[in-house]
Write a structure and sequence with these properties.
By secondary structure, the chain is of the alpha+beta class. It folds into 3 domains: 100 residues, Sufe protein. Chain: A (Alpha-Beta Complex); 203 residues, FAD/NAD(P)-binding domain; 118 residues, Alpha-Beta Complex (Flavocytochrome C3, Chain A, domain 1), CATH 3.90.700.10. Helix content is 32%, strand content 23%. The protein has 13 helices and 17 strands. Strands 4, 5, 6, 7, 16 and 17 form a 6-stranded mixed β-sheet that branches. A 4-stranded antiparallel β-sheet has the order 10-11-13-12. It has a 3-stranded antiparallel β-sheet with strand order 1-2-3. A hairpin with a 2-residue loop joins β5 and β6. α1 runs parallel beside α2 and α11 packs across α12. The protein is flat. It starts with a strand and ends with a helix. Bound molecules: flavin-adenine dinucleotide. Flavin-adenine dinucleotide binds next to β5, β14 and α13.
């Protein structure tokens, strides 16, 4: 390799790009600096702390991604690979090298004794309360528990419950380096989220949709695999509610059209209505926007939009007719759809599908079309709990020592969760369950 410091840009989470500086000698990676100021902080911080150190120490790009921050992790690895390529090195060879030693060290054991163990914790999401993606919640809660003496174990997967005389008394977990962690506690909280990233589990419990594709995507983190539900079942818990909502509601002025270029639903309908209407059209639909509507999209930037256009995942054209051609629609049909839609915006009323929330016409070039399919957004099924946050068994009896809240618990949102209601759910029921446990177990 040609020694030097190489400046590259790596893909970050969502729409961001991270500038990186990679210093190489003729045969080694000497230093990696990531400018993550454009990234949302929180768990991604762990990526920028741990991964460069792991790569430099191990002199390999065959490093495990940081759980829950896969995209940022891959961004760092790809950025270093790009620098190696620029220096004339063989990035593929660096990616095929052995994993760093730490990851393959002999397993160790850690044990904790505590009042409370919480499996799982809020993952970053949400509209934009103070910080993007709801990070502010995580900072505030994380700082608070740490200040009050809590130990936070990341990259540690709870795998079993400890039971004694029908009472749940702790959790057994493993860290990604193989360390076995045993936590004995007076109260065990299952708050490991839903099972949106576990398609076989969704298919198993689905009673709402006629069919769920094996390759259905999720808007959720890949770590949301229903572990908390399986853990509860180990203790004999009952499950309740089995449905999931597809499709997040598109921002108000976006227009949904089918593969023929025709609208087929009120874009502001409930999530399950949108998903059902889309599935009835064959699954694939397009979100159409003009230059002004595009600006109302959440969590994106022009840089990201341009990258998607270049990657062929977003289509852009100077006229609607050209746009239709790019996505294989009849130009006249798409133009007719948009002309009618614009007249509904003028009239403030949509006689076809009853859309009432819109104020922008689709008329300012360039125009955009994004292909979309319904994805699993939120699973409403989970552990049966009572109004105090106790997990209930199949006979409706409280399982001693076990509490649950959030998406891990089921039945709170019936068949269709309203957007924005989950954060209210988790803060209300999490607190309630904590109060219950404090009264019962100290
Ligand atoms: C893209 C997106 C946007 C959203 N936007 C909003 C919004 O704007 N408003 C709103 O109200 N709701 C929103 N939601 C829904 C809401 O964020 C979630 O329903 C809510 O975060 C659930 O919180 P929770 O604490 O129950 O679980 P989660 O936040 O899912 O956290 C569960 C945690 O448990 C961890 N975990 C899983 N298994 C294990 C295990 N075995 N051991 C240890 N840890 C484990 C996971 O890694 C994760 O950190 C959104 C959801 C998504 C996917």
């Amino acid at each position: 390799m040609k020694a030097g410091t190489y400046k590259v840009k790596a893909k970050g989470h969502g729409s961001s790009f991270m500038p990186m500086e990679v210093t190489l000698s003729d045969n080694a990676i000497q230093r990696i600096r990531v400018d993550a100021s454009g990234e949302t902080s929180g768990i991604a911080d762990e990526v920028f702390k741990r991964l460069p150190a792991k790569i430099v120490k191990g002199q390999t790009l065959n490093v495990d991604t940081v759980a829950g921050a896969t995209i940022s992790s891959r961004g760092v690895v790809d950025g270093v690979a790009e620098a190696i390529t620029l220096a004339g090195g063989d990035a593929t060879e660096w990616k095929q090298r052995a994993k760093p030693e730490a990851a393959t060290q002999a397993a160790q054991v850690e044990e904790y004794q505590t009042d409370v163990v919480v499996v799982g914790a809020l993952w970053r999401r949400g509209h934009k309360p103070v910080e993007p993606m709801g990070y502010a919640f995580i900072h505030v809660l994380g700082d608070w528990v740490t200040e009050y003496g809590a130990t936070i174990l990341t990259e540690t997967r709870a795998e079993n419950l400890l039971m004694e005389n029908s009472r749940v008394v702790g959790v057994v977990a493993h860290k990604t380096d193989g360390t076995k962690v045993t936590v004995r506690a007076k109260s065990v909280f299952l708050t490991a989220g839903g099972f949106g990233a576990n398609t076989p589990m969704v298919q198993k419990y689905n009673t709402y949709w006629k069919h769920i594709d094996d390759d259905i995507a999720t808007t959720n983190s890949p770590a949301i695999t229903g572990d908390g539900i399986s853990l509860g079942q180990e203790a004999g818990a009952e499950l309740t509610g089995e449905l999931f909502t597809g499709l997040q509601t598109p921002p108000e002025n976006f227009i949904m059209v089918n593969q023929e270029g025709k609208r087929f639903v009120n874009e502001f309908a409930e999530r399950d209505t949108l998903a059902a209407a889309t599935i009835a059209q064959g699954g694939l639909f397009y979100l159409i926007a003009d230059d002004k509507i595009k600006e109302t999209a959440y969590n994106t930037t022009q840089e990201s939009i341009d990258a998607q256009v270049e990657a062929g995942t977003l289509f852009k054209a100077d006229t609607l007719s050209e746009l239709a051609g790019k996505v294989g629609m009849d130009p006249a049909t798409l133009e007719d759809t948009i002309n009618k839609y614009n007249s509904y915006v003028d009239a403030g009323h949509d006689p076809e599908f009853g859309k009432s929330a819109f104020h922008l016409k689709c008329e300012v070039a360039p125009f955009y079309a994004t292909p979309r399919k319904p994805a699993i957004h939120h699973t409403m099924g989970g552990l049966a709990i009572d109004e105090y946050g106790h997990v209930l068994d199949k006979a409706g009896q409280v399982i001693a020592g076990l509490y649950s809240a959030g998406e891990n618990a089921g039945g709170l949102h019936a068949g269709n969760r309203l957007g924005g209601n989950s954060l209210a759910d988790i803060f209300t029921f999490g607190r309630l369950a904590a109060d219950t446990a404090a009264q019962e177990n100290g």
